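# nightly structure sweep
# worker-07 picked up a monomer target from the shared queue
# config: single-sequence mode, recycle default, output format = structure tokens
# input follows
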Amino acid sequence: MERELLRLSETPLHLEKTWESGGVPVLTAEVTLPRCGGKSRRARRFDRYYRQYARAYLKYCEAELLPRATETMRTALERSAPWSCARAVLAYRVTLVRGDILSLYTEGREEHLPPRLTLRRAETWDRRTGFLLPLTAFFPPKTAVKKRLVRAAREQMETGTAAYYPNYGALLRRAFSSRSFYLADDGLHWFYPMYSVAPAAEGIVDFSLPYGEAGPLLPAEEEKG
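# output follows
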């Protein structure tokens, strides 16, 4: 008997929290992450992964953002300058659901809290087993995946109009992470964190390769569950 594929619930995981200083709200956080809500072991594993992620993000907000938000408020009050409560928002976007594959990424945005920062991470799931799939799963065996993607990124940089750091060639290799990828209809995308290969104005630097026989491989369209 075929296993039923993981399916996302229409009701995502949603959490909100506010931190105060001296009775004044200085930081709010809003978290919205995917959720299955099923009773199978695979669904529970999926939901547990994002519950842990949500808790970790709120801990990050308290440990890293709250002190900065509090100091920003105090400085503004001392100078009688305009001030807004800092806000952190973590949300997700599904980029591909095809056959056994579910791919998505999450982004955490920080508002009214310099320096400007957006954090992204991505996951690609096997909907049949409930486990994460590695980048190498979408290339033929023995493919030098990092070398190929770094070379493709460099070629796209050289033909594009964005501004990058002068030593971007070395930075592409140094900052590459095999976990920073997702699948979409147009191909495989991989990305670099803000400030890693380009100034903040360029945001998160995202590259892509179309599907092909040499990889990245196109997931099957038919659902078997």
